[in-house]
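Quarterly update from the structural biology core.
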Amino acid sequence: MSDDRKERLMALGEEVLAEALLEQAEKNDAVYDVVERMLATPEENVARFRAKIVSIAETDRVYEWHEASGFAAQLSGLLDDIDAGVDDPCQGAELVMEFFETDKAVFERCDDSHGEVGDVYCLDARDLFLSYATLCAEKDHLASQVFDLTKRDNYGVRIALIDCAEDYLPQPIIMRLITQFRELLYTGGKSRQRDWQRCIDSLEDQLD
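Predicted structure, tokenized:
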């Protein structure tokens, strides 16, 4: 929207704009979600996020390829709830990791041929995670959580948090992560060795 249009809309007054927004919210679920987010307290937005997480896990709806774009927008709304509800960086990072844990429920019933849903995880969720993780002072605990999350990456999106480790973790902790993934190569069985080796390679590249 141009600056001119913004100024013209503001000139209409708060009541006119509020009525127009509420009218659109009655017709459009995405607009309704935005209105609810704007009116909610931070605590309520976190509660909205958690309720949506439960809904994703419990629903059995299947999204065809032509519905993936709308589904991706719904998933982005979960990230918006976190962003609107959390100021504490460590809590924010934890909630984004909870979002990553929806990958199984999402990808097992979504045809993401165009990669739009995957981008929500690998780009949008990663960026929101970084905005919190870079400010989180509890680096050891954060790294442990990332390790626990990414050692189980059946859908190839959780590694996004490994690929940007240098942006939020100091080198000694990255080296510790490498050691942990190497231990998995020898003790964790053969079925996931390729994934763990990929994590090791990514982390080692970031140390160069």
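The chain is about 75% helix and 0% strand.
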